[in-house]
Amino acid sequence: MSSLHRTGLFGKGMLGFGYAFLYLPILILIIFSFNSSRISTVWSGFSFKWYIALFKDDAMLNAAWVSLKVAFASATVSVILATLAAMVLTRFRPFRGRTLFGALITAPLVMPEVVTALSLLLMFTTVSGFFGTSSKGMLSIFLAHVTFTMAFVTVVLSSRLAELDKSLEEAAMDLGANRVKVFFVITLPIIMPALVSGWLLAFTLSLDDVVIASFVSGPSATTLPMKIFSTVRLGPNPKINALASLLVMLVAQAAVIGWYIMQRQEKRRLRDIQLALKEG
Amino acid sequence: MNTLKRWLNTAKSHSRWAVISVPYLWMLLFFAVPFLIVLKISFAYQVVAIPPYTGLLELADQSVLMKLNLTNYLQLMVEDKYIDAYLNSIQIAGISTLLCLLIGYPMAYTIARLPPTSRNIALMLVILPSWISFLIRIYAWMGILQTNGLLNKLLLGIGIIDTPLRIMNTPLAAYIGIVYAYLPFMILPLYANLVKLDLRLLEAAYDLGARPWKAFLTITLPLSRRGIVAGCMLVMIPAVGEYVIPELLGGPSTRMIGRQLANEFFVAGNWPMASAVAIVMLLLLMVPILIFNHIQGKEMEGRLT
Lengths: 280, 305
Fold this sequence. Notes:
The complex is a heterodimer of chains A (280) and B (305).
Chain A: H1 2-5, H2 8-32, H3 49-56, H4 58-91, H5 98-106, H6 113-131, H7 138-163, H8 167-174, H9 179-208, H10 211-216, H11 224-232, H12 238-279
Chain B: H1 2-41, E1 57-60, E2 63-66, H2 71-78, H3 80-112, H4 116-127, H5 134-145, H6 150-157, H7 171-194, H8 199-207, H9 212-223, H10 225-240, H11 244-250, H12 257-267, H13 271-304
Helix pairs in contact in B: 1-13, 2-3, 3-7, 3-10, 5-7, 5-11, 7-10, 7-11, 8-9, 10-13, 12-13
């Protein structure tokens, strides 16, 4: 048995190579954010000046603020719509148009970003031409982000709902609770962790998107990825390195916290099992 | 009493339809309708006006005429720049997918064979980079791949090359970017598949005298086929339509279809052509998706019989 667990030097080597490939570029990025030279590949001393320059860059800070607002709003609406969609897909009796419903909900997953972006842009321009107003800006980014993140959240929630033991809901219904009450008292608390991870997924997808936002947004709204994209198009820029390092540190912190919570939950679960075994 | 019951029943069915209609209407309005608009504009003529395309319906002599312009699609089939862009996209996405598989498979295999306690951390290390902004991760390679960048400095320093290599702004840089960005998408489904592999099968093969490589080729590889297909789809589909990576790393010589679409719209201002490019791109992507569905359907059949 133990010989089967050994993977040999080749596997370990490939794993090491893969991790190096994944992490070295990010590490280099962070190191050069402390470089005092403007040229991003020549090291000429340690300095915090690009961080200071970053916090003085109002356009960049504004863009970050726009991104956070859009991500927060679109993730929230997306989770609400996705919860409804997932309930329809997993709990509702078949109805006319269900096939189309399922296709519409999941199609954005395989749609290339540029196609989604182009189609939404064309629709927004058609509609604004119709009403004679300009609808481009933060609102269009928000609507576009809700639409494309909803598909991902629906997949997460549907799979959680599908594996959920239905007997709890049925028992509550037998005891006289109506569907709405069952949903809020039984279903919702159980799928809460999935809702939270769905919200986080939608939030990060929205924060990360550059293609859809740059298509549908007019000059009135610039998100952080749009700002980064237009800056780095002209070549490496140490201010972006500083921004990137801050983002990496944020993600690393979130990962450590998430890992800690997971670890604690696992310990608690093991203890519960042991207790249950003792009592039984 | 009866009327109350009936009233409650209708209220129930109304609320049921209310739950269905909210997400349904949203997706119709923001997904189906925009798509139909793209389809419609792809058959229009480009004109200098606002909006810069013609309508499909014309009222003439008390009859409604529908005019479908097919020249956009004909152009897509004969003009070199479009054919090149499509073929390049498929080639770049295909080779990148293969590279992801070659790097990702041994990684997923090794992680799946680690002791259970370190498996989660090893997997976490694979996922973690994809939490950092996609754009930032692509940007990280710009400083490395430049002609006066770190990779060239390193290679010159240890004397492998005499003159700096030109990698930035060539298709090679686009390959590196795509493999880097999409590698986790390959590893995850492969891992999920390989971790479920019944090790007793390998044990039996070893007992019967099979060499490790032979056991791998005849047992592990065929059993992980589903994971391979899923991973390849997850990498290939978004890679075909990739816009940011060829734009930032690939330079003008990397002509991919996503870029062609954006250029057609923003540079040439040709909305009908951009729409036609989008439609053909979708048709092109249907091929791998249908193959995937076909394989999955067959597996289901195989399991039932």
